[in-house]
Design a protein that fits this description.
One of its GO terms (molecular function) is metal ion binding. Helix content is 48%, strand content 10%. The protein is α/β, with parallel strands linked by helices and 420 residues long. The chain is globular. The structure holds D-allose and zinc ion (3 copies).
Length: 420
């Protein structure tokens, strides 16, 4: 923290000039800064090692090899940006054998446990039944039962860590026409999810993630927001839809989906990432920052309409990972992109937009949105970090202090992140 202080001192004069300029021009600047301070984004444990979840992995030096080290990585991110105070675990990639010590380690750094993720898309060594033809949808009750029990086990791990959300993503579907009966697959999935739902503690949520295709390429049983929403509404008021930005067909209007799910009180959370083609899981904001802004625009508008707390009522998580960047630098970029889109959305003049819409003034409406999108909000983010004890420029300090080198000295060059 002495180093953060020194880093901030060296950049302070420049920052103050840029922040003052914005403050003079944006009446809501102070309000936006406080909202940014409150906003936290959960880091997925599987993104802390290089390599994504598909094809080869090209690991870098000093990557975390244990759950403890993953938590320390998130703690490091959080120290730098003060916006990464949560981690999302994937079971069994992460097995919290000693939940109490894991929990106190996380507590020590102000990290909470966001949604826990189950995994029935891979067979684990020694497992009795195979998920080759699906899990919760499977034609064989014994396979479904194994998958249900796994999910209940994940809830138990989550309870021990103080999480209150289960995310279920299913690879279930079919690769060829005729392979399965759509209705039976859906009903099996529903019945299985009902058994898992029945095991949720009272204050828990279940997030049902959908995905258009991959690994199945003819049908996916929870393939879009309609199917997820159908399941979530049949399950009950603890079940919600989770939107992963990469899980749509090209050019899908994701912001419209977000708006309607929010309207129905059925939006549970996000997996943020970016993509050019499919579920690319690229750094948030690297390809379509305007889409990200438009999504946040709907979020802010819809959450305000429902009087929801922006920071607390949805699960904000990243789901991105790939081979060519330092994972920690990549995550700093992703968190920054999310907060930037959020700040821009907070800037939108809602009153004027409403009037422009009522008057069918299309040009004005577009100008209002683009005016917000084209405002450089980076000084607002920097000010939020400064006030909460973080670094003015997290990526800069990460490089200046050669933090990856320190991690490599501590952990070694070849550390295999557990799991994948
Ligand atoms: C898979 O495509 C989904 O995005 C899931 O959220 C999955 O659990 C995560 O990406 C880890 O593989
Ligand atoms: Zn996802
Ligand atoms: Zn994705
Ligand atoms: Zn995905």
């Amino acid at each position: 923290s002495g180093s953060i202080q020194a880093h901030n001192d060296s950049l302070l004069k420049d920052h103050v000039r840029r922040f003052d300029f914005l403050r003079e021009n944006i009446p809501a600047a102070e309000d936006i800064v406080s909202k940014l301070i409150a906003f936290q984004v959960a880091i997925p444990s599987w993104a802390l090692g290089t390599g994504g979840t598909r094809f080869g992995r090209f690991s870098g030096p000093g990557e975390p090899g244990t759950l403890e080290e993953k938590i320390l990585d998130v703690a490091l991110l959080h120290q730098l940006n003060r916006s990464s105070g949560a981690i999302s675990l994937h079971i069994p990639w992460d097995i919290p054998d000693h939940p109490d010590s894991i929990r106190s380690l996380a507590d020590k750094y102000g990290i909470r446990f966001d949604a826990v993720n189950s995994n029935t898309f891979q067979d684990q060594p020694g497992q009795a039944q195979s998920y080759k033809f699906g899990s919760l949808q499977h034609v064989d009750k014994a396979v479904r039962k194994q998958a249900i029990e796994h999910n209940i086990e994940v809830i138990r791990h989550g309870v021990a860590l103080g999480s209150n959300t289960l995310t279920v993503w299913l690879a279930d579907g079919s690769c060829f026409p005729g392979q399965l009966n759509f209705r039976r697959a859906f009903l099996n999935t529903l019945e299985s999810l009902q058994e898992i739902y029945a095991a949720l503690p009272a204050d828990w949520k279940m997030l049902v993630e959908y995905k258009a295709y991959e690994p199945n390429f003819y049908s996916t049983t929870v393939g879009d927001w309609g199917q997820s929403h159908l399941l979530a509404s049949k399950l009950g008021n603890k079940a919600y839809t989770l939107v992963d930005l990469g899980h749509h067909h090209p050019n899908t209007n994701i912001e419209q989906i977000v708006s309607l799910l929010l309207m129905e009180g059925k939006l549970g959370g996000f997996h943020f990432n970016d993509s050019k083609y499919g579920d690319d899981d690229l750094t948030v904001g690297s390809i379509k920052p305007y889409q990200l802004f438009l999504i946040f625009n709907e979020l802010v508008e819809g959450m305000d309409a429902r009087k929801m707390d922006h920071a607390l009522e949805l699960a904000w998580m990243i789901d991105a990972s790939h081979n060519v960047k330092d994972p920690l630098e990549d995550l700093l970029q992703s968190v920054e992109a999310i907060l930037l889109a959020y700040a821009q959305a907070l800037l939108v003049d809602r009153q004027s937009l409403y009037h422009a819409q009522q008057e069918n003034d299309v040009v004005k409406a577009q100008e209002i949105l683009q005016d917000a999108f084209r405002t450089d909000c980076r000084p607002l983010l920097a000010e939020a970090r400064l006030r909460s004890g973080g670094a003015l420029h997290p990526l800069g300090i990460f490089r200046d202090m050669q933090l990856r080198r320190t991690l490599t000295e501590q952990r070694g060059i070849h550390t295999v992140a557990t799991g994948l």
